[in-house]
Amino acid sequence: MTLSLIVEIALSALLTATLVYCAILERRLSMLRKGQDGLKQTFVELNTAIVSAGASMRVLKDAAAAAAATLDDRLARARGMADELSVLTASGERIADRMAGQRSAGPSADTARTMRPGVLAHRLEALRPEILRPNTSRSESFRSDALRPEALRSEALRNVR
């Protein structure tokens, strides 16, 4: 055997080893590419989920703001009605006390005088809180602004943010 034959056999063995190593490297690279494609798909799905969650949060925030506005409006109306009922109750108690006092004092000339419904309605309207009066000019706008639903709604929205 000559030296050139030995060198060629050695080169063939090295080329065979290189070819086997290249095949192994090709398999690993193809597995890495498949993993990379899977990772890209995972990122796309994650991005879609994040966008969907953001949209859901905006819808939820809008719904909460609408619910807060509705609740503030109802609360303002309920407070106004409670104030009106307390005024009417107090007025009714005063009238009942007067009637009881007149009954104990006996009939007098004042009991012969009866009040008309229009006069009573006017007196009840005068007892109604100013915020609940329809279409009245309010000189003290700072008082009425504090109880308006718009003012309460903006305050509630500031608290939500």
Notes on the protein architecture:
This protein is 85% helix and 0% strand. It has five helices and no strands. It has 161 residues and is mainly alpha-helical. It starts with a helix and ends with a helix. It has helices spanning 3-105, 109-112, 117-127, 141-147, 149-160.
Radius of gyration: 44 Å
Count of runs of 4 or more consecutive helical residues: 5
**H/E order of the elements?**
HHHHH
| Helix/strand class | mainly alpha
**Separation, N- and C-terminal Cα atoms:** 90 Å
The shape is rod-shaped
| Share of helix, binned | over 70%
What proportion of the residues form beta strands (DSSP E)?
under 5%
Number of strands: 0
The major pleated sheet works out as:
none
Low-pLDDT segments = 138-146
**What's the pLDDT, averaged over the residues?**
79
Task: Please describe the topology of this protein.
Layout: H1 3-105, H2 109-112, H3 117-127, H4 141-147, H5 149-160
Short description:
85% of the residues lie in helices and 0% in strands.
List keywords for this structure.
161 residues; mainly alpha; 5 helices
